[in-house]
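Quick one:
INPUT:
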């Protein structure tokens, strides 16, 4: 059977298609980027980034563009598809992302950095920049990582438990204001009914998960899989035997961690010890 010819010739990649439609609509309107910015009330550079695919922006600006261009709901629908597109994540994470999206519960241990589901944009940006990302790729990865937090929002969010090594919380960001924002976000998230946060004190000594970060996912079919990650690579583990060994190590470590109430107090003390940004 011959391959079906594409009708429009436009990109089938959601993020790129969204950018293409924005460029096409502005060209049909006859506006420059500066004119569009003046008429919409946003900095014109934002629209330039949207049309280059460097950012997706927020729903409020997309809804305003739908109204301005007379395309009720179309741009917002394309934006939602672009937001949900997992190809914006690096290849090695995509299989994991597919499983994470269908997980009925998640539990996690952080040995060196906070889990992506609990990161603020400032934390994610400084962490990814330290790993060598720059420019557009950095901003795309920050946006993708922060977008994952939606998994823990809403009434249908899966239960999430995170054990965070004290070492993670003793490694602040260089930007004091961003570090305060991250600690405040941790406290806010820990108040959600489906989220449990533990701090593992350094005083507990050696334990079974000292060398890697690990996330466990309980899937719809009842299986549990694990994703282990160090500073250079991640590895999805789906075989029962190694997953069981990792779970036993996790359970033993959870017994050594502070309770959720004690953990919140620990984070609050760190926040109180962190100086305020003098510019605020």
């Amino acid at each position: 059977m011959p391959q079906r010819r594409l009708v429009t010739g436009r990109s089938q990649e959601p993020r790129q298609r969204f950018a293409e439609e924005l460029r096409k609509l502005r060209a049909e309107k006859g506006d420059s980027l500066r004119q569009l910015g003046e008429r919409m009330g946003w900095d014109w550079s934002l629209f330039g980034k949207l049309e280059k695919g460097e950012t997706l922006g927020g729903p409020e600006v997309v809804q305003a563009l739908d109204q301005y261009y007379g395309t009720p709901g179309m741009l917002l629908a394309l934006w939602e598809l672009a937001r949900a597109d997992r190809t914006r994540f690096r290849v090695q994470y995509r299989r994991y992302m597919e499983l994470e999206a269908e997980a009925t519960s998640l539990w996690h241990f952080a040995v060196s950095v906070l889990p992506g589901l609990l990161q603020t944009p400032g934390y994610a940006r400084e962490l990814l920049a330290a790993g060598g990302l720059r420019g557009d790729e950095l901003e795309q990865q920050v946006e993708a990582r922060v977008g994952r937090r939606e998994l823990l929002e809403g009434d249908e969010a899966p239960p999430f438990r995170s054990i965070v090594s004290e070492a993670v919380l003793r490694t602040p960001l260089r930007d004091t204001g961003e570090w305060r924002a991250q600690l405040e976000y941790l406290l806010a998230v820990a108040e959600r009914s489906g989220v449990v946060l533990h701090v593992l004190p350094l005083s507990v000594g050696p334990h079974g998960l000292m060398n890697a970060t690990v996330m466990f996912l309980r899937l719809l079919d009842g299986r549990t899989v694990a994703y282990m990650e160090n500073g250079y690579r991640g590895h999805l583990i789906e075989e029962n035997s190694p997953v069981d060994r990792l779970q036993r190590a996790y359970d033993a470590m959870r017994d050594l961690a502070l309770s959720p109430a004690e953990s919140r107090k620990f984070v609050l003390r760190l926040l109180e010890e962190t100086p305020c940004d003098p510019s605020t």
